[in-house]
Amino acid sequence: MKRILLVLAVLASAPLAQAQGDDKAYCAQLSDLYRRYVQNATGRRVDVEALQALDDCSRGKPATAIPVLEKRLRDAKITVPGGEFKP
């Protein structure tokens, strides 16, 4: 019985781990786009909220970083890959 419960617990956590990995990869992609096209743009002021989002993304907290990076990219007329983030 314990063995079955252990197997079920492992199987149930697999999709969650996959989703978290996907979010981290998406966050890294957004970070790259932000750094390339927005952060280093001529005449651009320092954006503290975006810098925090980049830091959150690098620390494995994509849920807080993704919405900020998506907004900054859209504001700069950069197409966000893959559509809208849904936590």
Topology:
Blueprint: H1 2-39, H2 48-58, H3 62-75
Helix pairs in contact: 1-2, 1-3, 2-3
Structure explained in plain terms:
It is a single chain. The chain has 87 residues and is mainly α. The chain has a domain at 19-75. It contains 3 helices and no strands. It has helices at 2-39, 48-58, 62-75. Helix 1 (2-39) runs antiparallel to helix 2 (48-58), helix 1 (2-39) packs parallel to helix 3 (62-75) and helix 2 crosses helix 3. The termini are far apart. Mean pLDDT is 81; it is low at 5-19.
For the record, give the distance between the C-alpha atoms at the N and C termini, rounded to a whole number. Answer: 34 Å
Give the uncertain stretches in residue-range form.
5-19
Topology as H/E string?
A: HHH
Tally of individual helices: 3
Question: Can I get a quick summary?
Answer:
With 87 residues, this protein is mainly alpha-helical. The chain has helices at residues 2-39, 48-58, 62-75.
